[in-house]
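Q: Got a minute? One more chain.
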Amino acid sequence: MTLRGGFERVWIGCHRGVCCWVLLQACYFLIVLAAKPKMPGHTHLNSIRIDGDISLGGLFPVHARGNDGKACGELKKEKGIHRLEAMLFALDRINNDNELLPNITLGARILDTCSRDTHALEQSLTFVQALIEKDSTDVKCLSGGPPIITKPERVVGVIGASASSVSIMVANILRLFKIPQVSYASTAPELSDNTRYDFFSRVVPPDTYQAQAMVDIVKAMRWNYVSTVASEGNYGESGVDAFIQKSREDGGLCISQSVKIPREPRTGEFDKIIRRLSENPNARVVIIFANEDDIRRLLQAAKKANQTGHFIWVGSDSWGSKIAPILNQEEMAEGAVTILPKRQSIKDHERIGKDSSYEQEGKVQFVIDAVYAMVGLCSKMDTINGTLLLKYIRNVNFTGIAGTPVVFNVNGDAPGRYEIYQYQITNSTTEYKIIGHWTDQLHLDINQMQWPGGTQEVPSSICSQPCRPGQRKKTVKGIPCCWHCENCDGYQYQADTYTCKMCRFDLRPNENHTGCVPIPIVKLEWSSPWAVIPVLIAVLGIMATLFVVVTFVRYNDTPIVKASGRELSYVLLTGIFLCYATTFLMISTPDVVICSLRRIFLGLGMSISYAALLTKTNRIYRIFEQGKMSVSAPRFISPASQLVITFSLISVQLLGVCIWFGVDPSQAIIDYEDQRTANPDMARGVLKCDISDLSLICLLGYSMLLMVTCTVYAIKTRGVPETFNEAKPIGFTMYTTCIVWLAFIPIFFGTSQSAEKMYIQTTTLTISVSLSASVSLGMLYMPKVYVVLFHPEQNVPKRKRSLKAVVTAATMSNKFNPKGGLRPNGEAKSELCESLETQGWYHA
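A: Always. Here it is, folded:
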């Protein structure tokens, strides 16, 4: 080995008996020596040169990036030395294999990139010097002869680089000279662009696969809100872009913060990044595509901010299973999930790092595979051009040093095969533990995972908690993973994750508003308090009515029964009976028959009652009006005429009902609006007849008209002689009935919006009808029954009045018509006298 400006290692061959550890130590000494500052103005190349028949170039980050204007910084023992020695190890194996490249010795020109793309570009110009023709026609030696120029060794292919930004920079130069390049670590997706980087290949998969694997890991953990951190440059930015693109394609994943670490971070830059990542405490997972130095400094800043155990790091292959980024800050890295292309440690007597405290670096296998891919199929490599060599490289298919196949696709990419690690701390023992692998799809053993604090419970990294059943998500604008939960209230149910819909009119939401169930159907039950009171009144009324009828039938020929007008009395009692009987129709379960009977009998009972009363009051009024003008009897006052008039009035009611049946046949319906309360749990469908409030008004309107007309006649006949006992009871009956129905109207129509509408209206209507019947029964017939049963002595005919008394009684009615004159005594005809005698000339 000789030092020339920097250093060069001239390695003709390596015998199997020579211990490579000695070579590694020597290499380490020379590299450190070369890294020492030189005198101002003195430039050098940190390189290793191995002479051979065919030379390969190599690019390795032996040193870290320098600070304060220096190109190179501290030595990188894993990422630099291990990978460098892996290439030397591969060259030794190939040179000692007489079958692979017989009679050909491989040489190498290995350069240090110092982890900086611009520095690597300057270094890589060494690879193309032999291909640049130098014009020496103007150069003469002192002797006058042409100069003797030593031509640099030709580099037929380059192994490297490590960082994607370095590979991109170098690839732009190498493609101009058609020098194939095989990288062992560069994974930026843009390097798959075969139109720009057509001479670039790699034995590691691109970050598009890695990004998909990381997305699958995040989804397997049920995280949906993460942050990303990328080192400035092609590797970091392209990796994060690929992750974001894959997350969008798969959906269900949102980015809280996307932070980029500058190439030359200023003081406090990492503290600022940690503060940004902490702005959304729900986003605990951080996706990292960063170089080793940035990872280390990021963890230091998180430790400084006292965020131990808060962040869950998901690192790319640049983190992998390296010790250097987490050295002295193991607690900050606990639980970190990292990815590495599937690999295996090289077990050989020349194992790299064998006696070192460091584990073998993760990309060692790929360095060796890259060398074999470059030289394995071409025994005449020195005589072929770069284009043909590239074709051979793209078509290789062999088993690599670790037993995995080495192949390339049309873009020069290796297939995606990853191992998934988690950094765990158990009883003060730390390790990167393999928890799964990814080959087109994820295979993850969650039971092997351990999180900060030694817990097995997967930490949460979601923007919003899942909504409860019966709630819909209302997403935050621009952040689909963040939402507010809104209740599906009222009659709404949760149709899907984002939608509440109204239940159908005959349905209501179930208990947790995830679906709809039928609304319970109710009707007025016989056992309901709303039905008991009307039924009790109706039963008592029917019993009383039947009692009166039986009494009248038994005493049908007595003066009191005769004087009450037997024919109209039985008609009136029939109407009263129907009024009471209507209560049972109103409470019975609605069907077509019941609804039809309701239409017929609800108004018929009152129409019969008021038609009979109207006929009576009209007859009295006409008799006394006639008495003012003459003593002759009015027309149509006979019992037969009275019945004809009464049934004519009743027929109007029946005719109206018949027309109603023709226009709108009766039916039972379920009214879901009647008890559609604000609280859907209280909603009920009401089984009822299709009689609207307007129809009810029309149905009862005719009866009300008869009642009002009868009341008018009652008022007009209020001054008849006391001995004519029918007028005043009828008057009191009508006055009381009017009061009952005046009270009914506001109660009935004032409850139209009440949840108890059906019960209140039915009860009010039935009680009002029964009370009207009770008033008529009590005031018109109970006094007569009382006299018949308890005072039979009063149930005798009175002596006939003299004609003078009759005329006097008739003329007393002049008070109804002050303008009427008195008729001369003695002119009364027997017709009027007989009429008066028959209809009530007795004392009750």
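A: The chain has four domains: 1-37+44-132+152-204+363-414, 207-351+417-448, 471-475+483-514, 529-840.
Q: Perfect, thanks.
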